[in-house]
Hints:
The structure is a homodimer. By secondary structure, the first copy, chain A, is of the alpha/beta class. Chain A is built from 6 helices and 6 strands; from the N terminus they run βαβαβαβααβαβ. Chain A has a 6-stranded parallel β-sheet with strand order 3-2-4-5-1-6, sandwiched between helices. In chain A, strand 2, helix 2 (about 65-75) and strand 3 form a beta-alpha-beta unit. The first copy, chain A, is globular and about 45 Å long. Chains A and B meet through strand 1, helix 1, helix 2 and strand 6 of A and strand 1, helix 1, helix 2 and strand 6 of B. Strand 6 (about 165-175) of chain A pairs antiparallel with strand 6 of chain B, so a sheet runs across the interface.
Amino acid sequence: MEIEKPPVDRERIIPTAERRGLILVHTGPGKGKSTAAFGLALRAHGRGKTVKIYQFMKVPSARFGEHRVFEQLGVPIVGLGDGFSWKSKDLDHSAELARHGWAQAEATIRAGETFLVVLDEIMYPLRYGWVALEPVLQALRERPAHVHVVLTGRGAPQELIDLADTVTEMAMIKHHFKAGVPAQRGIED
Amino acid sequence: MEIEKPPVDRERIIPTAERRGLILVHTGPGKGKSTAAFGLALRAHGRGKTVKIYQFMKVPSARFGEHRVFEQLGVPIVGLGDGFSWKSKDLDHSAELARHGWAQAEATIRAGETFLVVLDEIMYPLRYGWVALEPVLQALRERPAHVHVVLTGRGAPQELIDLADTVTEMAMIKHHFKAGVPAQRGIED
Lengths: 189, 189
């Protein structure tokens, strides 16, 4: 029987002085990109670190399960969108909101007061051209060295993958929607 | 420009009467399998649902960020392991603990009082043969219809994939360990 290395090697935890912030990307068509970012946010918060979550495709009034818990924990989770969907008529407005949202997120990243910044579903505005890629890459490159940034959404641009420290592609092997099972409250929202 | 469907289709949320529990599997070599399960747990808890997390490869005394937060939220997170690693000498003891842990988890799944049961890193004991696959599949098949179960770990058995409603494979595109960047407190623990 092959005994393989467990997923986290505890011995690689090293002193604070040698640490640095990471760029983590969750992409691909499968489930778990945002929930894994929320799990990281939870973990960092549990370690007493400052966390801020920006959601590019959620409205400010979103009250999914995660919003309720992060509010209770005092972790800011900021909806930057206008409920954009593939049926949206006013894409100019969506684009304007995304640019405004990015400006907020960029300021947070550059300020260096937040240990972990989550840019949830930022791949959408990047792919739609609402937010230009180069300024995002530049802000990530120029960020204070201790700041971790998680970026989620399908279709991560290659330049972002090149820049990132860790990239996970969530591949959809099966999805219950395809079998006709609808979204479940408490699981999908 | 192709406008594709956003990841969650709000219109598919349907009345409670038509809902049912799901089997969700997070597998593959990439990051995010456990953190995505924690994100789901967070979301369900935020919706006022009961959640219980069993961790097959963590010791009961584990105090990672997630343990601290789930404890604060009143979500049980139970370490079932003995700190097994690829250097472990006493594999019989690890196997015994895993079987004992599975008995606890099975009882929770069958009791039907928990909306979401997380079986974190259960693929390890399944692959090592510490816990037999068939009784796990049977408990999943026979569970009360409203119970959701998330199972994580690399190398999910095909029979489990066949049974599951939703399977995501976390593929590792890049990992900072491979670039010599060590584990970061607050990100990896």
